[in-house]
Every structure is written in C-alpha cells, then in structure tokens.
Amino acid sequence: MDTGTDHVGVILAETDPRIGRAADGEPVAVVNAGVRAGRTVEQRHELARRLTAALGDRFGVPEHTVYVVFTEHPGEDFVLGGEPLASWDAAEADDAPPTERDGRE
Q1: What is the rounded CA–CA span in Å between residue 58 and residue 45?
Q2: CA 7 to CA 13: how far, in whole Å?
Q3: Rg of the chain taking only CA atoms, in angstroms
Q4: What are the C-alpha distances in Å from 55 to residues 28, 45, 67, 71?
Q5: Are 47 and 4 in contact (CB under 8 A)?
Q6: pTM above 0.90, yes or no
Q7: How far apart are CA 36 and CA 91, in angstroms?
C-alpha cells in the first residue's frame, strides 16, 4: 500500500465545547485522528503542528484552543475498497528513498 501525506480525511461537527483555556465564545477545534500504527512520535507531532496552523489560518481557531488526539490502530482496522490495509511502514514515508517507497532494492 503506497501512502503519503497528500491526503487527510476530515469530519467536521459543530458543537459548543467549553474546554481547556478557551474564553467564552472563542472557537475551539478538537481533532480526533485515527492513524495506522507505525508512525513515529515526531511524525504525529508534526501533523498536529500543521493541523493547528491550518485551523488558525483557515478558520481563525487560536492555537491554544486546538486539541489533537491520536489513536493508533493496526492496518487491519482500516478497510479500503473492501480490503484491509497493512500496518504503516516507514518505507511509505514521503521522504523515504524512491527504491524503498517503490518496494525495490
């Protein structure tokens, strides 16, 4: 399975959360990200930083009110086209050498 960072599935639900350091009426974003197990802490944190910045840029959500929670699942918990995915492998990373990404030695 060839994967990368060129796609992210997003579901939005409007609600009135009053959590954390948000002032009354201040926008809040809660991101629950289900990811295939195997990505490093650094990769997950980089995604959280980018999501936080994008939510601020596009929707005006202050950085201090963006909450990102990662839940890791084995690849088999994700099914695409009726077929379960394999667990994520570092060779699938966008910065992996092309021979690793393509499965060639």
Answers
A1: 20
A2: 20
A3: 16
A4: 10, 15, 11, 20
A5: no
A6: no
A7: 14
Confirm whether 65 is domain-assigned. yes
Asked, for residue 40, whether it belongs to a domain, the answer is no
Range of the domain at 61: 47-71
**Count of domains for the chain:** 1
* b/e burial code for range 40-79 (CB count within 10 A of at least 16 → b): eeeeeeebbeebbeebbeeeebbeebbbbeeeeeebeebe
Q: For residues 82 and 79, what is the distance between their CA atoms, to the nearest angstrom?
A: 6
Give a yes or no: residue 51 inside a domain.
Answer: yes
**How confident is the model over 74-98, as pLDDT tens digits?**
888 888 889 888 777 777 776 665 5
